[in-house]
Amino acid sequence: MAYTFDEDTAVEPGPGGWRAVVSDRWSIAGIPNGGYVMSLMLRAVSREVAHPDPLTTTAHFLSPTSPGPALVRVEVLKQGRSLSTAAVELVQDGRSTVAMLTTWGNLDDLTGPSNTSKNPPPVDGPITDEAVVGPPAFAAIASRFRYTLPVDATEGFLGRPTGNPELTGRIEFADGRPADGLAMPLIVDAFPPAVFQLGHYGWTPTIELTVHLRARPAPGPLTCRIATRFLHGGMGEEDVEVWDRSGRLVGMSRQLLRTADQAKAGATWRPNNSNPEVS
Amino acid sequence: MAYTFDEDTAVEPGPGGWRAVVSDRWSIAGIPNGGYVMSLMLRAVSREVAHPDPLTTTAHFLSPTSPGPALVRVEVLKQGRSLSTAAVELVQDGRSTVAMLTTWGNLDDLTGPSNTSKNPPPVDGPITDEAVVGPPAFAAIASRFRYTLPVDATEGFLGRPTGNPELTGRIEFADGRPADGLAMPLIVDAFPPAVFQLGHYGWTPTIELTVHLRARPAPGPLTCRIATRFLHGGMGEEDVEVWDRSGRLVGMSRQLLRTADQAKAGATWRPNNSNPEVS
What pTM was computed for the model? Predict the structure, then answer.
């Protein structure tokens, strides 16, 4: 049986680009998750470049993507010895909804020096004494993953904000699919926004999301540190560090997002009817 | 008299795009600084979009840009009420050397909530007790700015690494030009790499650089915090936070770079003959 993620990022060659079907299984309030759409676009790129690893990928979100048919247009700008770069667009109804640049390489070829000035978070035992296991009930996407989150952060997503827009949690695909570079954009975008911990429960559209793949993840759950350190006038960055079970940093992301103050707690992230856990 | 930065980012309409001349006044070892090239490309975008502020800009560097004539091709992907997005390429001799995506908006329109969980560095008085003023002697670009750096970091750039790839420094244009959103990519890329503080003095090519403009800078020097926390196999991120004199975070950047261990101290960043300070 194929994994859900692979079914939902399948592409096939078609006239004018790669044909895909955007799934509704990774949606939040009916809108497909931006990281999921990036992963789908990366799948098309993987069919056109020789290198195996998407080292750095940036998407700008032009308009909401809808579940249903889409065309992924890939223009390979460079096919070098060590790096390949492509420009990518997702097109629905003749209109680009996402524009992306991505550079691929081979992580096996990295032979230079290493240095790490920061210790990993706890990557195996409990994240805090109060860790809980189970999906927070906020969207269809939540039932695609197993989340481990501190109790206070989980409650913060549902109306009792901690006041601190930082948290460490753990994530793995619910159907056991191993994490990899293709899935990294989805994974960094799969937690509820850290600004919910400030009580800003409105819709938080992503303006731009950049993901770096720094190593291929070891099997097992990934530990993510998520933080919004600077929120100015409703615009903020959300940084995510992704660590694998061996204690290695495997990914980093930063997105620029907007938030609003007016929404009621849980109003837009309330579970929709495609999430069987909470209907 | 026009400021050097504005002279060197001038564009004029031409067949097939915006005509520009890449200057050699912002070079390192003869190669124009990547952030400078991004600023030049943003100048062309400013002529095509209605919004005033480049909120987020990502460039992928395909091959080195050379001083001399260039064409900047701008494709506006979206002209929305609150945001505009453009895809941009710099073309020399018929070949794209830089590909960029950029989304613009109006910082005056931000009306949502604010929160800052981190204190600014010292933005006015001395950065450390040992602060020095004066350009580090490493490249043509150095004479375009006034730098204030701790003594140990300055020496680290020149062969006596501190062992800690983090530093806080101050920067302003030598000719007094005020910093703004157009100049932000150049500014975040204008310090020597933080990995020099580990003794890795080789050429550090940028794979990708993303810059967020979070506020319009107040007049005066900008204070930058620069860090490479994770270097894996010669590939690392370099993060820069930019603060203005009022103590406000005005910009953030992250680049993915490669470094090498083999170069001799100062070998590639040794001053070249276009820097009058050190010839």
Answer: 0.92
Q: Consecutive 10-residue runs of chain B (279 residues): their mean pLDDT?
A: 94 96 92 97 98 98 97 97 97 97 96 82 74 59 88 84 93 96 97 92 92 97 96 96 95 94 41 28
Query: What ipTM was assigned to the predicted interfaces of this complex?
Result: 0.92
CA proximity to A224, closest of A152, A162, A149, A114: A149
Contact A99 B114 (CB under 8 A): no
List A172's β-bridge partners, or say none: A146
Which residues are A76's β-sheet partners?
A86
Distance (Å) of CA A148 to CA A126, A132, A240, A269, B213: 9, 6, 16, 18, 34
* Inter-chain CB proximity B210 and A212 less than 8 Å: no
**Residues B115, A252: C-beta atoms closer than 8 Å:** no
Is residue B249 within 8 A of residue B242, CB to CB? The reply is yes
Find out whether B70 and B92 touch, Cβ atoms under 8 Å.
yes
Closest CA of chain A from B83, distance in Å:
9
Q: Give residue-wise pLDDT tens across range A20-45.
A: 999 999 998 889 999 999 999 999 99
Residue owning tokens 């794209």: B96
Q: Which residues of B touch A260 (CB under 8 A)?
A: 112
